[in-house]
Amino acid sequence: MENKQVVNKKELVKKLLKQEISLEDEDDLIEMLIDKPITIDVDKQEDKNLTRGEKLADRLSEVAGSWGFIIGFAAFIILWIIINLIIMRHALDPYPFILLNLLLSCLASLQAPIIMMSQNRQAKKDSIRNQNDYQIDLKSELILERLHDEVRECIKTQKQILRILESEDEQKK
User: Fold this and answer.
1) 15-38 pLDDT per residue, tens
2) What is the pLDDT of residues 91-131, one digit of tens each?
C-alpha cells in the first residue's frame, strides 16, 4: 500500500513539474503533501551518517581555519627561528631553515585535502538543504493555491447567498 502511494506521489510530482496535472491529481498530491511533513534537519541527518574520518576532517578544518591556529603556528615559526638562530650553538635547523620548510610543506600537503573533504561534505549538505527548500516551497505553493481556490469558492457561495437573500427580500415587498 505504502509503495503504491510513493509511486503515485512520484507520478503526481512529475506531472506537476511538467504542468500536466489534472484537478483530481492535484487534490491527491496536496493531501499527500499536507499529511506528511517534508522538512528535515540536514545537519542532524548528515551527522548521523558521518564516518570517523569525516568527523576528524571536520574537527581539523575547524581548528586549522581558526585564528587560534594561525596565531599559534606563527608563534611556533618565530620560536623555531629564534631557537635555531640565537639560542642553540649547533642549530638543529640552521639558516635557511630547510627542516622548517619541509615541515611546512608536509603540513600544507596533508591539510589541504582534509579541508577539501570537509568542504565537499558541506557542499553536499547545502545541496540537500536546497532540495528540501524546494520541496517546502512547492508544498507552500500548492497549499496557497488550494486556499486561494477555497476562498474563491467561499466568495462565490456568499454572492449566491446574497442574491438569494436579495431576491427573497424583493419577493416580500
Assistant:
1) 555 555 566 666 666 666 666 666
2) 888 888 999 999 999 999 999 999 999 899 889 889 888 88
CA 169/CA 11 separation, integer angstroms: 52
Residue 77 falls within a domain, yes or no?
yes
Give the span between the Cα atoms of 138 and 169, in whole angstroms.
Answer: 46
CB 121 within 8 A of CB 62: no
Domain encompassing residue 54: 37-172
Structural domain contains residue 53: yes
Query: Is the distance from CB of 130 to CB of 137 less than 8 angstroms?
Result: no
> Do 80 and 93 touch, CB atoms closer than 8 A?
yes
Number of domains the chain is built from: 1
